[in-house]
Amino acid sequence: MATMTYLHAISDGLRTEMRADDRVFCMGEDIGVFGGAFKVTEGFIEEFGPDRVMDTPLAESGIIGTAVGAAVVGMRPVCEMQFSDFISCGFDQLVNVAGKMHYRQGLAVPITVRLPTGGGFSGGPFHSQNPEAWFMHSPGIKIVAPSTAEDAKGLLISAIRDPNPVLFCEHKFLYRRVKGEVPEDTFETPLEARVARDGDDLVVITYGAMVPAALEATEELDGASVRVLDLRSLVPLDEEAILDAVRDCSKVVIVDEANQTCAAGAQVAALIAERAFEDLDGPVVRVATPDVPIPFSPPLEQALLPSVERIKEACRELLEY
Amino acid sequence: MATETARPDATEHLTREDRAQLLRYMLLMRGIEERAMTLYRQGKVPGSFYDGYGQEAVSAGAAFAMGPRDRLCVLHRDLAAHLVRGVTPARVFGQYMGRASGVTGGRDGNVHFGDWRLGCVGMVSMLPDMMLVATGMAMAFKLRREQRCALTWFGDGSTSRGDFHEAMNWAGVQKLPVIFVLENNQYAYSTPLEAQFAVDPVHRAEGYGFPGMSVDGNDVEAVFEATREARTRALDGAGPTLIECVTMRMHGHAAHDDMKYVDKARLEEWRRKDPIERQEARLREAGVDVDALRQEVDAEIEAGVEEALATPMPDPATATEGVFCEGEANVLGDGQAPWSGVS
User: What is the pTM for the complete model shown?
Assistant: First the structure.
């Protein structure tokens, strides 16, 4: 085991797979000589050379589309969107070409797309988004979102080895704030939910940067026993873990950093309404970012993103219900 | 243009048998599409129907120049490319009729298909998305230092979209072994060329750092020869080529389109340049029994229809299956490569 930041763990996972499998290569904007906007691939070009740490033209559709082409002839591309927001420019290639290929033609598309997501640092409307729900609605694309350093490495390795297109949502706010013990060898993390803290009075269901926020908000909550369920994978969604948590806790708060309407948490809420209604002992409560573009100025941004305080408040109200 | 040699029945790169094969694939394409149109009118082909009548030389000529390990992204008016690679008429008819025996097993419609086992990826409706996919295949070949190339077709309409530029730029920057075949059939649905671009897109190749050439898209041997040259360049590491095949879409965009926006005299003028009649005239001169070839092709098509009609529709219980790959990732296989000179 080694202590690593979340960011270091992503680099370590990528490096581990590139050393183990010469089909794996990475491509993206400024990832080579510069080492990536967030330095995930720093030092990679020296170890693996410019062919496998490819600086591409500034063309996101091009990145996804050429990755699909490379994948169907036997490569395992790992694409980096400099910010997840730019995946909008590669939407068509991802949704229409990559996501539908196996269903239509029986041809696997093993690509991984790394998406630095999320806000909280004055990135403004085009560098702060959480676009994962766009793709939950598109068949054929898997989506993972680690919240710990260990899962960052293990889920990235799982994503690269998966024969399908996988979006790897790495939260920028966690890059250097989250640290943890990570196995130095290779390992895969299953695309399943994880109980981040056990409890049975109430469950907070969330993923990504909202996991540490939920843990902090519920650490000491008037003596209540609060479970925090870290989804880790949005597609596939671990329905059994969600239903188990509702059965055990009976009260549910769902937290999304994404804009509220049709966010991942909306699907979780729908699942609970359909299949766990009898287990509920109160309304399903959602905490999410209102349907507003993420503003630049800190007081405006902080007014929108779910805070530890808002999560705490929501839990407290529901516990009293 | 193919150079005539001392032997009147062969060209520099095509034997008499090759030249007859080119005609055979064009006849198969036309015959299958005409037969499918009848099936469509009989209600046996769901959705709409799109054909490549008058454009047969473009897919037959370009696909014929490719090797078994080359990879192709095939467009909707390029049926001959599938046939060259080895898809049987029965599977094409099965595909058109949405049968389990079709190339996509009923998962995708009529002309959206490619048999991955034969090195082909089927198109999506968003054009020209496959230009980037072909560019990515070529990128992998270059990364692995393999002497192979990728080819994709696309229409004049596609040249207005961003993926055209992203692919051309990418391929030029990385000097990739990819061949872009621009099928200029004069119309994007009902929109004529003058409403699409101010400069013929073949000239854009130079701006991206590689050659663009324009050929008579109704001359199958000219299309073959241009593609053969482009492939040689690609395998030599000299980078991409844009080949504009100038042709005419002789039918509507799809079965419902009466083409009232096209001047009848213009269609008549293009009818006189029919690619099949031209190749037939050449072969008759070279002493090939064209009538026997036609009969053989007709019989093959009828047998294909019979075979496809005997196959079942897909089982509705399977409609949710296969969204994700659950085993090992498969990769594109090798296709048929009938040209005698292929390396």
Answer: 0.97
pLDDT one-digit tens code per residue, B118-148: 999 999 999 999 999 999 999 999 999 999 9
**B36-53 residue pLDDT tens:** 999 999 999 999 999 999
Given an 8 Å threshold on Cβ–Cβ distance, is A163 in contact with B167?
no
Q: How many residues are there in chain A?
A: 321
Question: Tokens for B151?
Answer: 């080819």
- Nearest CA to A280 out of A317, A311, A321 is that of A321
Q: What is the pLDDT of residues B279-299, one digit of tens each?
A: 999 999 999 999 999 999 999
Chain A residues lying within 8 Å of B325, measured CB to CB:
102, 108-110, 163-164
In angstroms, what CA-CA distances link A210 with A205, B126, B167? 9, 36, 38
Contact yes or no for B311/B92 (Cβ under 8 A): no
Active site annotation includes A127? yes
Identify which of A192, A137, A136 has the alpha carbon closest to the alpha carbon of residue A167. A136
The continuous run of DSSP H or E covering B293 comes out as: helix B290-309
Q: Kindly list the residues from chain B whose CB atom is less than 8 angstroms away from the CB atom of residue A56.
A: 170
Do the beta carbons of residue A302 and residue A213 sit within 8 Å? no
> Would you say the ipTM is above 0.95?
yes
Rg (CA), chain A: 19
Tell me how far apart the terminal alpha carbons of chain A are, to the nearest angstrom. Answer: 43
**Could you please report the per-residue DSSP string of A159-188?**
HHHSSS-EEEEEEGGGTTT-EEEE-SS---
Distance CA B336, CA B88 (A): 11
Strand, helix or coil at B150? Answer: strand
